[in-house]
Amino acid sequence: MENKEFNLHDVVEMKKSHPCGTNRWKIIRMGMDIRIKCEGCEHSVLLPRREFARKMKKVLEKHEE
Ligand SMILES: [Zn+2]
Fold it and tell me: Ligand 1: distance of its center to the CA of 31 in Å?
């Protein structure tokens, strides 16, 4: 089973890459909504948590505490 646990500052891959061609997003806000920022162009997107969980493919980098 895929690991879908995610935390603030993790870098994740989404099912669809950003139109800029990058598919690395950093989680910059956690709550009822999740804000992620594209590591390629710094564009940020706010998604409801449930939608984020559905669209997220995998965690690329866990944030070290
Ligand atoms: Zn981008």
Answer: 22
